[in-house]
Amino acid sequence: MGDQNLSRLVSPRSVAVLGASDNPQSIGGRAVRNLLEFSAYAGGVYLVNPAREIVAGRRSWPDIESLPEIPDLVVVAVPAAAAVAALERCGQLGVRFAVLFTSGFGEGGGEGREYADRLLKIVESTGMRILGPNCPGLCNINQRIGFTFSPSFRNDLSAGPVGLATQGGGLGRNIMQSMDRGVGIGLWASTGNELDLQVADFIHYMAGKEDIRVIVALLEGIKDGPRFMRAARYAARIGKPVVAFKLGHSDYGRRAAQSHTASLTGSADINSAVFRQLGVVEVDDIDELIDTAWLLSRGLPNQMKPKIAVYCSSGGTAALAADAIGLAGIELAQFSAPTSEILGCNLPAYAAIANPVDTTTAVLKDMSIIDRTLIAVCNDPEVSLVLYPMALDYGDVTEATVRSIIKVNSESRVPIIPVWMSDRQGPGYQLLAASGLPPIRSIGKAVKAIKRWIDYGSWQKEGKREFMPKMLSAPEFVIEDAPSVMGEFQAKRWLRHSGIEIPRCEIAASPEAAISIASKLGYPVVAKVVGEDILHKSDVGGVRLGLASDCDLENAWNEIHANVQSSLPETHIDGILIEAMAPSGGLEMLIGLSRDPVMGLIITCGLGGVYVEVFKDVSRRMLPVDYEQASAMLKELRCYPLLTGMRGQPRRDIAALCHLLVKVSDFAVEHLNSLSEMDLNPVWVGREGQGAYPLDAVIVGWGLDARAAPLACRDGEN
Amino acid sequence: MGDQNLSRLVSPRSVAVLGASDNPQSIGGRAVRNLLEFSAYAGGVYLVNPAREIVAGRRSWPDIESLPEIPDLVVVAVPAAAAVAALERCGQLGVRFAVLFTSGFGEGGGEGREYADRLLKIVESTGMRILGPNCPGLCNINQRIGFTFSPSFRNDLSAGPVGLATQGGGLGRNIMQSMDRGVGIGLWASTGNELDLQVADFIHYMAGKEDIRVIVALLEGIKDGPRFMRAARYAARIGKPVVAFKLGHSDYGRRAAQSHTASLTGSADINSAVFRQLGVVEVDDIDELIDTAWLLSRGLPNQMKPKIAVYCSSGGTAALAADAIGLAGIELAQFSAPTSEILGCNLPAYAAIANPVDTTTAVLKDMSIIDRTLIAVCNDPEVSLVLYPMALDYGDVTEATVRSIIKVNSESRVPIIPVWMSDRQGPGYQLLAASGLPPIRSIGKAVKAIKRWIDYGSWQKEGKREFMPKMLSAPEFVIEDAPSVMGEFQAKRWLRHSGIEIPRCEIAASPEAAISIASKLGYPVVAKVVGEDILHKSDVGGVRLGLASDCDLENAWNEIHANVQSSLPETHIDGILIEAMAPSGGLEMLIGLSRDPVMGLIITCGLGGVYVEVFKDVSRRMLPVDYEQASAMLKELRCYPLLTGMRGQPRRDIAALCHLLVKVSDFAVEHLNSLSEMDLNPVWVGREGQGAYPLDAVIVGWGLDARAAPLACRDGEN
């Protein structure tokens, strides 16, 4: 199912409509009308309806077998049972694609599930690809072809460079209606239940199409993580931006998405980390998809630190825009002397001629001022983009302003981004929409879009280098068994066996043995309870630090036994782990692995100890990570200054921490199918040259007993 | 200037227009037209123009002295010099209010500054109040009276319960144009340069007006902090919500605002903290003002944890809304059995009848389903508000949906909040606007507004109790001199003198003295360099901790001297502070004071040590704070779980920390006019019963030498 050549689905040489009808309210009737009346389709159309001789004034065919040719595509508007039977025959005949509007395939369970299984069998055995079921179909706007029953098809026909793939139809149509703001959308596929074709497949397909410059994806869930990753990587290689919004940031959202399209949604944090790594531009709300995509579609040059200009005719608006820009960490350009001179000559003395430019309402009297000054701002060598917010709609005057914007934009080396802030949408707004300069609706949204454009540029320059040579982190198998937990001692020995340095340690079965071990390690030591059922050692008083003498150690032995027995009376204590204590003054970080149901095994690094739960300051990557990626992970952390040293704090052994991350990554790759989770917290990070190593470790996974056995503790093996 | 009775400004019995003109393009001509043609003003109107006998078909008067009565208000549309002269005469004659459109009063410096001073003198000597200069005036929409030259006045005449005060005219007009979305705005004052009347004065005035239910304030800066605080407190006491957006979150924004209206903007963080404490509802972008204000204007009951319902006809939209709601930490209602039964009976089997409700497109065929099921959702006892997002515009069908929404809303106990997500604004949108149910434009913005409504309710139940009995934190004087800095030793002694416990300490002038002091304090001790020029002791290697013996201490003495002399060769070392060392394992917090140029002295508490700069986890209050407020400050911190104890960490002495906060507040109140900043960082917080005290202290202020002198170190005074 790796073939992403969907050309004959998007632009088939011929198509048959099963369930073609004259009833304008029926699904089949609407589909026929959209194809015959509102499309400009030049291929062969076969209407199939065994109960009619004529449909829509054309010959109606009784079944697929009687057609004079095998169509590339069948569009299916018949109930589930009939649809399955017909598609089985289509598959056998060699039809390549089907668009299946029909619902009732497993969203509600029962026989729908059985139908869905039969459809999957068709896909597997014949190679026919199915779009749907439970979807409004496909709109190939750039060729004006609609394989859809949507009554809105006729209204949303503005061709353009944006490619759109969504699961649901309602939100997809919401995006299509941004055409009223001047956006052009070349292709929209709604994948519905994603029984076969997924949003990922259309990302893959559109990445290779010249008429699509930016891909917009709206995801309720991701059915197949690896497939999505491959598609995103393919688009990234070609250099085509993918802008995505994925539901499932909260439990409410995950539950609702699951009940709508039965989509599995993994962790939102992990999803965002994967998106970021793959260069997928993630947005926070559906309206931001188009704002961002349209900006990216304008083909701006990639610059590392682009600077922008603000130009408007209201001081408050200039201040509002400057404020939002500063807050987003974006830089305003500093105008060169020639720019300032042109602004100074043409604008009144009380205007603001530095960036942001406030022309004041002087332009209301002489609109030609805009033509002369706006182009100067566009031509300034430091300016990469001009934001033009319009706070209010003056009617005619604003329309004239818009004419200037359109004219200057067409002459300008850099794009002008108009922002229409008013709820009044008079002729100026309509003119922007008609001229292919869709306005953004608020300064906040505009600045967010600009920030994403800048971040995407940085990713192209820097993040892209981080690209994984292989795709290892996707789950390659379905996990049925519950994983088991490997406690600290076993986990540490396995890590050490795999070349990851841990503090020297040994299990003691008696106070005497503990003292003997401590004398080998040298005081101070740490004592930690070991027991199969004891997961949170600290919580039950099972840990004692900084033991400096035989006496301390003996007391600790007794306290730990007393504490654990009082907290967990039923538990068995296997012994006490005696460990060399890390020098004081180390920084506590953490390194973790977690298995996302969609994205697979992910590595995490962050501030450890108790702070992880308070500040959640972590960065994540797909596997594997190399030294450079490990270094980039650390730089993303808010706590990075604690590693580099600040306010009299020492610089930490960052190199050792990076090496440890790489070793953990290697370990994870080696045991990819055994690991579910791993938690090294805290990871002690010393001063430069002192190293970095885990002080605690828990591993969760499958078949761990077998791995641990040969590493079981042998006396004196330290 | 404390009199906020602006009735005769907003609704004068008579008004004179200075600079009345027949030229429809002039400021005076537009003002006359707005008043005579587009207003429904019943009071006396006197047009004043010495060059004309007739203006706008009425008698024109040569000057203010010749009028048959003294008008309540003069509207001034003449250039600056003439305006000042006329206003001086108006003030002497007893005119109570002036609206001054004219620019050129000090925005550009020069003689404008002089004019401004003369205006201020009029205000002071005659009591006449001035709106402006440099403003578009005042629109009393509820009585349909415009004292404004704006050509848009005639288009923005939808009366309503929102009161609006802005500085600038452009952004104010932007908000006025939300009338096109169905919003009604009763009064708009644009205060321009705020030479006399400020946004705060209109907040104060509108708080007392029955026809205004919610006040919207847009601030480029706040000229007079105490005046703003008094106005906000007055509104809070009356129970009238104030929704505010203040520029100045970034340096760019502060600079641009300053150049526009010469507004001083203090720290955005401090501003937000003051807003929160006063119950002012702060928003993040201008469009959120109206979304939030309109929701608050609907007079929803205050509930501590209101639960909401989502109702729509698209599964993706339902999931999107549920996701945003979950992410905002808002609760979805759980429907009672009767609600579920009605939904189950009326909706198809494949609909989602739990919250969020997805009717599916079944409603397209039978719109009466909405009437029957939406009212059931509204009537559910757990539901406080129903969010109705509409993803797309189906034309007629959507218009019919809107009819249902309007009908059910009128019958419902709880409000329905429509969200119009599409860029297509067909008849359904227009119908919502016309029916006084202004739609919000995205789910994200709607959820933000709902969150603010919930937060405002919580504040009314809880935050309001925190109200200060007195207003102490506002700056009572203009500070001209630069403040001086008091180092750790002097600062600590002053604090101790004021009843704030600090670790025992003494300055040593020689290694022998240090050892003698340490023997009194008991090891371990801390050694810190003392020197007037040495502000960042750690940065220059001037601090040694955990000195456990005479030998350690002597080494530390030498190291500190060597370090400091190598870092700061020119500096003088006054001695070494020897201090009892706090027990290990304490949590490092901070307590600070800072003087905001607008809001005055503010107290801050947060996670201290190196973490403050990394995570900026702090909470702030105006002075004074009592024990309950101190406790609330701690609960706001993200790091609060570190105080209450988590993951085997001990519970900290929260009571001692609260007491310390109260003592610092008392100290600040006592020395209000001397203090500019104070930094207690770290504040050591022990386990329960161990106390909390500052380990380091810096005080910045005025006249500190005099305060410190009597507390200078005397040998053996510990």
Automatic annotation (TrEMBL), chains A, B:
Alphabetized InterPro entries for the sequence: Acyl-CoA_Synth/Transferase (IPR051538), ATP-grasp (IPR011761), ATP_grasp_subdomain_1 (IPR013815), CoA-bd (IPR003781), NAD(P)-bd_dom_sf (IPR036291), Succ_CoA_lig_flav_dom (IPR032875), Succinyl-CoA_synth-like (IPR016102)
SUPFAM superfamilies in UniProt: Glutathione synthetase ATP-binding domain-like, NAD(P)-binding Rossmann-fold domains, Succinyl-CoA synthetase domains
Domain of life: Bacteria
PROSITE patterns from the UniProt entry: ATP_GRASP
Residue ranges constituting the ATP-grasp domain according to the UniProt record: 492-528
Keywords: ATP-binding, Ligase, Nucleotide-binding
Molecular functions (GO terms): ATP binding; ligase activity; metal ion binding
Chain ranges passing through the membrane: none
Family, as annotated: In the N-terminal section; belongs to the acetate CoA ligase alpha subunit family.
This protein's name: Acetate--CoA ligase family protein
